Amino acid sequence: MYGFGLFAVITSFAGLWGIPFFYERFPGEQEAVADMVALIFVGAAIGAPLLGWLACLVGSMRKVMVVCAIASPVLFSLLIFCPCSMLVMAMICFMAGISSVGYMLAFSVVKSISPPERIGVLLAITNGSMLLAGPVMQLIIGFILEGLGHDGLGALSIEDYQLAFVPLLLCQLMALIVAICLKKQ
């Protein structure tokens, strides 16, 4: 559930709904919008080894997971609700990518708490739950946006997108609850 909650940001927002949201937020800035969404993936690429190193340095995956699960909804809230410049938004996107890639630590936790004869199955279940985050959350957001198309033409406002992204925030809060409930290592 932790991985599902954080990976949903990457697969649902960055993978699909971020570009139309930013087009609405920053009209006429198509190229810059694509770059901002790409910064989420760049943040994730840099954050993955960085968070692994940090977990080794701190000596606790749980602590890093909790920090990521706190930072991710805070940054995502700023990303969708904060009326800021494109430069500030680009920095938020990059940091959101770093924090949401904390999902990768779930694999190490599963491996460390699984009985040896079940590691393969439990890692597959973990991976499968994360992969489900994309199609499930993309679909939920799509249904919400479809219901919010007010003018019959399907034109959506920034507020419509913000409302549709609330389930992603709930997923991130679910990840926080799971991270807090993990046994201390």
Structure, explained:
82% of the residues lie in helices and 0% in strands. The protein is built from 8 helices and no strands. The protein has 185 residues and is mostly helical. It has helices at 2-25, 30-58, 61-81, 86-100, 105-113, 119-148, 158-164, 166-181.
SSE order and pairing:
Layout lengths: L1 H24 L4 H29 L2 H21 L4 H15 L4 H9 L5 H30 L9 H7 L1 H16 L4
Report the β-strand fraction as a percent range.
Answer: under 5%
Which structural class is indicated by helix and strand composition? mainly alpha
Helix/strand order: HHHHHHHH
Secondary structure: helix percent: over 70%
Radius of gyration over all CA atoms, rounded: 17 Å
Distance between the termini: 19 Å
Please give a quick description of this structure:
With 185 residues, the protein is mostly helical. It has helices at 2-25, 30-58, 61-81, 86-100, 105-113, 119-148, 158-164, 166-181.
Characteristic key phrases:
single chain; mainly alpha; 8 helices
